[in-house]
Design a protein that fits this description.
- By secondary structure, the chain is α+β, with helices and mostly antiparallel strands.
- Helix content is 31%, strand content 16%.
- The chain is built from 6 helices and 6 strands; from the N terminus they run ααααβαββββαβ.
- The radius of gyration is 24 Å and the shape is globular.
């Protein structure tokens, strides 16, 4: 070990130096411990946003609902982007389309992923599996809500018109509504919080 430390000190700051590790490779490896973890429940919904961070829909200056923007504010809050959430609410309102939303996000450098008109169910699964969630168009493109859970049986949404409650529905019912609404989904790509621990 002294030989290794001496060589590290001797060549500190030098580039392209190969250090002789000597007998270091003869050290005993530390054995892996096998742990018997208890069974745990998967958090449901996957995106379990606290009530205080759920944004209500609001009327914009043109008298239109701001459901797309309210959904994005909630998504930013979920991923810890609180300054962006405040900025977004202060600067954007009224109705929105996929192309114009992408322009706005590109202009201010938001990292995001989206899909539209492709019936890309794997995007929804990715958004929920990575615990990011996503905004999704529903009701024949008349509304956007936040998809916060999707498994093999159920979907769960957070509707910004009534954000106090989660709305659970059969997976196929949700997907049919989303596809008939142009299959638009959008998600900021930052870091969501870890799952809650379960006993």
């Amino acid at each position: 070990m002294k030989r290794l430390l001496f060589l590290l000190v001797l060549f500190a700051g030098c580039n392209g130096i190969t250090i002789d590790m000597g007998t270091l490779n003869t050290l005993q490896s530390i054995p892996n411990q096998d742990y018997d973890y208890p069974d745990y429940k998967i958090e449901k919904p996957t995106v379990n946003l606290e009530t205080v961070f759920r944004e209500h829909n609001w009327l914009g200056p043109q008298g239109e609902g701001s459901c797309v923007h309210a959904t994005l504010v909630s998504l930013y809050n979920w991923e810890g982007q609180f300054e962006m959430a405040d900025y977004w609410k202060a600067h954007y309102a009224d109705g929105e389309f996929a192309s114009t939303l992408a322009d706005k996000m590109n202009k201010i450098g938001v990292r995001y992923a989206y899909t539209t008109n492709e019936n890309n169910i794997s995007f929804l699964e990715w958004a929920c599996d990575t615990r990011r969630g996503c905004g999704v168009a529903v009701h024949n493109r008349a509304h956007m809500v936040m998809l916060i859970h999707l498994d093999t049986e159920y979907a769960c949404i957070l509707d910004n018109n009534h954000p106090e409650n989660f709305k659970w529905m059969p997976r196929e019912e949700f997907i049919a509504d989303w596809i008939s609404s142009g299959s638009w989904a959008v998600s900021p790509v930052y870091t969501p919080p870890p799952p809650l621990p379960f006993d």
